[in-house]
Write a structure and sequence with these properties.
305 residues; alpha/beta; Rossmann fold; 2 domains; 5-stranded parallel beta sheet; 4-stranded parallel beta sheet; 10 helices; globular; Asp/Orn_carbamoylTrfase_sf; ornithine carbamoyltransferase activity; amino acid binding
């Protein structure tokens, strides 16, 4: 029997495993609608979402169904968790009724408890600490257009403490690229590894970068800080000035939703919209391959050469 797999953090996969996922994602993308897939045949996967979602929910529900499974969506108000039931009890019941859990919640610890007590695969669909599915897909999207990300400079402009930036920082060590974060000092990345640098200068972060990346200034759960953050981040916008100092073939990504003329200028978003929407679409293909990996049905023999 194959060991149980979870994807709670970007650290849960090696580069070799990630590249296996990327290869299968490319195959899924190329052949979508042409082949019947049964990686999750006769399986039901629960989507437990305690935070709002557009792309994550849509991409995972479609992914489960296109792999031959059923997706069961539950928000926090649908569960006794909202009334204080212990996670241990909820997780063990889910483990006896469904085949896997895709969870979007606040605490990474809550996700980890589901993995401990559920005895079924658990996938992190976003916590306050990480958004590993987003960044795994982002790296795939970069490499789809520009080749290997190894050795490249990636500039993240905005909150270096947010879940997306944290996952980028952790991924830098796995894929050996250089992440430069431009942010006010209070929002420098807390991830300490030799591939991550912090600066207060957008120009310094974006200089010769191969990818410019941003996210909303105010993450879910921090809405009470919105006014304060709009003042603190007012000088941290991706715009044409940032593009001018970057590499000539620089890509611009945004994990969405995007607030024009805040974290990204309306002009730059419009100019780079095709790449950004492709970045969003690739969530579906990468997550299909991730699901196949999690259930132990992805290995080299299953991938067409």
């Amino acid at each position: 029997m194959k060991p149980l797999r979870h994807f709670l953090s970007i650290k849960d996969i090696s580069e070799k495993e990630a590249r296996l996922i990327f290869k299968k994602a490319s195959e899924f993308k190329e052949n979508r609608g042409k082949k019947n897939l049964f990686f999750l045949s006769s399986q039901t996967w629960a989507l437990i979402f305690r935070k709002p979602s557009t792309r994550t929910r849509l991409s995972f529900e479609v992914a489960v169904r296109e792999l031959g499974g059923e997706a069961l969506f539950l928000n926090s108000q649908d569960l006794q968790l909202s009334r204080g039931e212990p996670i241990e009890d909820t997780a063990q019941v889910f483990g006896r009724m469904v085949h896997g859990i895709i969870m979007r919640t606040f605490s990474q610890k809550e996700l980890e408890l589901f993995a401990i007590y559920g005895n079924i695969p658990v996938i992190n669909a976003l916590t306050d600490e990480e958004h590993p599915c987003q960044v795994l897909s982002d790296i795939f999207s970069y490499e789809e257009k520009r080749g290997s990300i190894e050795g490249k400079k990636i500039a993240f402009v905005g909150d270096g403490c947010c879940n997306v930036a944290r996952s980028w920082a952790l991924a830098a060590e796995i894929f050996r690229f250089h992440l430069s974060i431009a942010a006010p000092p209070l929002y420098f990345s807390p991830i300490d590894n030799p591939f991550v640098t912090n600066t207060t200068s957008i120009e310094e972060a974006c200089q010769d970068a191969s990818l410019l990346y941003t996210d909303v200034w105010t993450s879910m759960g921090k809405e009470e800080e919105m006014q304060k953050r709009q003042i603190e981040f007012s000088g941290y916008q991706l715009n044409e000035q940032a593009v001018k100092v970057a590499s000539k073939d620089v890509l611009v990504f945004h994990c969405l939703p995007a607030y024009r003329n805040k974290e990204i200028s309306a002009e730059l978003f419009k100019e780079r919209a095709e790449d950004i929407y492709t970045q969003a679409e690739n969530r579906l293909h990468v997550q299909k391959a991730l699901l196949a990996w999690v259930v132990g049905k992805l290995d080299a023999s299953l991938i067409s050469e």
